[in-house]
What we know:
This protein is of the alpha+beta class. The protein contains two helices and seven strands; from the N terminus they run αββββαβββ.
Amino acid sequence: xxxxxxxxxxxxxxxxxxAITAAPVYQHPPENAPWPLVIxxxxxGATPIGFDDDDDDDRIVxxxxxxxxxxxxxxxxxxxxxxxxxxxxxxxLIEAGFTIRALLESETVNNTDDGKGYVGIVQFRVFAxxx
Length: 131
């Protein structure tokens, strides 16, 4: 069986790629990738859920998705953030021996440092339960 982090990354990338219509989805965007784009970002340390034995594969996986848009209007970034949330929140994904469910923790949209666009950050707490 794959580990929980691999399963979460694969399932999330596939779900976002299928649901996002206005931007490409990347794990590692090319250096000069044009905006808009969606990035499967940080997947922080997975925390074991179970207490029964050392072989329990169940994990809680913190996940961050970034959205970057160009222009002076916030609305395109907000729309992409909404697509990310809709693709993952409370949906059940199945991947490599895991049932995966992402619970929304937060979403923010801020101006880029250079003022030429917006960055949206969506944070999830993902439960990866081994079959």
